[in-house]
Design a protein that fits this description.
This protein has 660 residues and is an alpha+beta fold. Among the domains are: 165 residues, no CATH class; 100 residues, no CATH class. 64% of the residues lie in helices and 11% in strands. The chain has 21 helices and ten strands. The strands form two sheets. Strands 2, 3, 4, 5, 6 and 7 form a six-stranded antiparallel β-sheet that branches. It has a four-stranded antiparallel β-sheet with strand order 1-10-9-8. α10 runs antiparallel to α11 and α16 runs antiparallel to α17. The longest helix has 33 residues. It starts with a helix and ends in a 5-residue tail after the last helix.
Length: 660
């Protein structure tokens, strides 16, 4: 009964989404206030109905209702409760229901907290958001219905993909969707502004918090996915340039560009057309990500579906929204004329360069991702584009971003003098050169990767620190420290965001330059040496887990005769799916990770063992966390609240002062 109610709620939500789209749109065009006001209750009701449907599906998973086809295919009575819950979105149909739920929740957030928005703009934003809801609710109901029943329910289910039965990946999709779908809000604001014919500083203030939230959630989601791949897949890497990984990385790059571009619109009313275009492309690449993971055109542990019918439907959604928005963009070109004028050397120019580098980097990733598919489709050639291409083609642009970011962040608006900025950044530059020299000495001159990467990372961190210190003005140290504590939270958020990127640079360059890998066959009781560490394979035993059988090794790590850690890498077999997984054992530290993997037994006796010494790995996750914290801190700044700009304009209007 609960399942049927959930299905009915989803059907009702589609009807409400149609009302949310059509009625406020007509009201905005006719100037009918009561029709525009209907957008708010419609958005709230739609979110409530989809939440009920999602709750009904979760109930079916938790209670192991195998009469529901989706539960039978993706759950099992012996599965731990955490994975029964996360199994709701560990499949195509459930993940799409989560997608439409987040679309509706973002719309409800605008309805609840967007009271300061002009009524016509809010109505148009919610109308576009309602249309997105219509598209994906239709997709869910007509091609991916999660509430289909089985005529003859099985005694037990087939279980969830074992690779997904992990805390890191359990929470990875929700955060990714909060980012993917969050970009729909920037898209809705962009389309609403195009319909209204008004793009100004106030619009940029309203769109920035939603873009920042989407970027922050994408950062967390990508970080969780990378962390999961590192410790779960047993290959020891944090990024593979997998098409599905790229599908989340491209919107992240566009969201970062949109954030910086919106600043120029807000401060100088320039780059209007470029900012609108970035909002369209950001959401467009989110839809491309959905198409890649659900159309069957790529094979990946991250992919959800291989049904070409669903792929065609998603392609139609992509063409409709992006094509329609770009058509409207072309029709409204005159309304997006820039007002602000700025010099070649200015903060505006720095942000433009930042935008160009981010956008081109995203398109490089897109070409590398899509080219094998295009080659097979148009030229009947099977090609593989792997890490060497991406590292060679992508690296120059990300290096360029790292070089210009500290300088651009400190340039004054409109017109600047480079000498003054360089003087302020001299300590950061000297630190970067010192770190590069140290890295070169430690690496014995074997590779330029570590010196260059660590220099760039140090440049970003030190540049961010100099930037925030320069905002305290001049005077005594005590006074400047006092002013430092009173700086806006957004300034501290920028420090963490830019500095976190620098920490990621340091972690990646150190790991890739100095990693040590050892692969061998080890006998039980045997000890061997890897990069100064003594590794002993003490025993290998067979253990029974909750829903798997584990082959667990006990391995002791010592250095200079002193025991450092006891690690237990595993190979698990999930009998229901007949699928093995690798569980690496990791001794994590600030400066290095000891990473052990147990393989298969060998014919001549012994076990295959892989040992990695991975320097600076923890710095990658720490940098990602710092960037996400920077986003959270910036969002908490009162200037980012939607109401702040509008309230300020209202006060100015009352006093007879023109709005900025």
């Amino acid at each position: 009964m609960i399942t049927e109610l959930g299905h009915f709620a989803l059907v009702l939500a589609l009807g409400v989404a149609l009302v949310q789209f059509a009625v406020p749109l007509v009201g905005a065009q006719k100037g009918w206030t009561n029709w525009m006001a209907l957008a708010v209750p419609a958005a709230l009701i739609q979110a409530l109905l989809i939440a009920l449907a999602f709750g009904a599906l979760m109930h079916a998973f938790v209670t192991s209702d195998f009469s529901l086809r989706l539960v039978a295919l993706n759950s099992h009575s012996l599965k731990p409760m955490l994975y029964k819950v996360t199994g709701v979105w560990g499949n195509h149909e459930g993940s799409m229901l989560l997608w439409v739920l987040i679309v509706a929740l973002y719309g409800a957030a605008v309805a609840l907290f967007g009271g300061a928005l002009p009524p016509r703009l809010r109505a148009l934003v919610l109308s576009v958001q309602g249309l997105i809801g219509v598209a994906f609710l239709s997709f869910s109901l007509f091609t991916s219905n999660p509430f289909l029943r089985l005529a003859e329910p099985p005694f037990d289910g087939q279980g969830l993909n074992p690779l997904l039965q992990d805390p890191g990946l359990a929470f990875h999709p929700p955060f990714l969707y909060l980012g993917y779908v969050g970009l729909s809000m920037a898209f809705s604001f962009a389309v609403a502004a195009l319909i209204e014919g008004r793009i100004d500083a106030a619009w940029a203030r309203w769109v920035r918090p939603w873009t920042l939230a989407a970027w922050m959630f994408l950062t967390i989601g990508i970080g969780l996915g990378s962390w999961w791949a590192y410790y779960e897949l047993g290959w020891g890497g944090f990024w593979f340039w997998d098409p599905v990984e790229n599908a989340s990385f491209m919107p992240w790059l566009f969201a970062a560009a949109l954030l910086h571009s919106a600043i120029v619109v807000e401060k100088r009313e320039s780059l209007k057309s470029w900012t609108i275009l970035l909002a369209i492309l950001g959401f467009g690449f989110s839809l491309i990500g959905a198409f890649i993971t659900r159309s069957g055109i790529v094979t990946s542990v991250h992919a959800f579906s291989s049904d070409p019918t669903r792929g065609i439907y998603l392609l139609a959604i992509l063409a409709f929204f992006v094509g329609g928005a770009l058509t409207l963009f072309a029709a409204r070109a005159r309304e997006m004329e820039a007002r602000g004028v700025f010099g070649l050397l200015s903060r505006e120019s720095g942000l433009v360069l930042n935008n160009i580098l981010l956008a081109v980097a995203a398109f490089v990733v897109f070409i590398g991702t899509i080219w094998p598919l295009a080659a097979e489709l148009f030229f009947d050639r099977k090609l593989s584009v792997g890490a060497p291409f991406f590292e060679a083609a992508f690296t120059p642009f990300i290096v360029g971003i790292a070089v210009v970011l500290p300088v651009g962040a400190m340039l004054p608006w409109k017109r600047a003098r480079l000498a003054g900025v360089v003087k302020k950044l001299t300590p950061a530059l000297l630190l970067a050169f010192a770190v590069a020299a140290l890295a070169w000495a430690v690496g014995s001159g074997r590779s330029a990767l570590a010196p260059v990467g660590m220099a760039l990372g140090s440049w970003l961190v030190a540049g961010a620190a100099v930037d925030i210190w320069s905002r305290t003005g001049r005077g005594a140290l005590g006074g400047r420290l006092g002013r430092l504590t009173r700086l806006p939270r957004a300034d501290w958020g920028r420090l963490l965001g830019h500095g976190g990127l620098g920490v990621v640079f340091i972690g990646i360059s150190g790991l890739m330059a100095w990693q040590v890998e050892d692969i061998r066959v080890a006998q039980v009781g045997e000890s061997f040496e890897v990069a100064g560490y003594e590794v002993t394979l003490e025993k290998v035993e067979r253990l029974q887990g909750p829903n798997y059988i584990s082959t667990t090794a006990t391995m002791r790590i010592a250095r200079d005769g002193r025991e450092i850690a006891v690690l237990r890498p595993e190979k698990r077999l999930y009998p229901v799916q007949g699928m093995p997984t690798t569980e690496a054992a990791i001794d994590q530290g600030l400066w290095r990770d000891l990473y052990l993997v147990i393989g298969d037994p060998q014919e001549g006796g012994g076990w295959a063992v892989r040992t990695f010494i991975k320097p600076f790995t923890a710095w990658i996750w720490a940098g990602i966390l710092l960037m996400a914290l920077g986003g959270i801190l910036s969002l908490s700044d009162r200037r980012y609240r939607v109401a702040a700009g509008a309230a300020r304009r209202r006060r100015s209007a009352v006093k007879g002062v023109p709005a900025e």
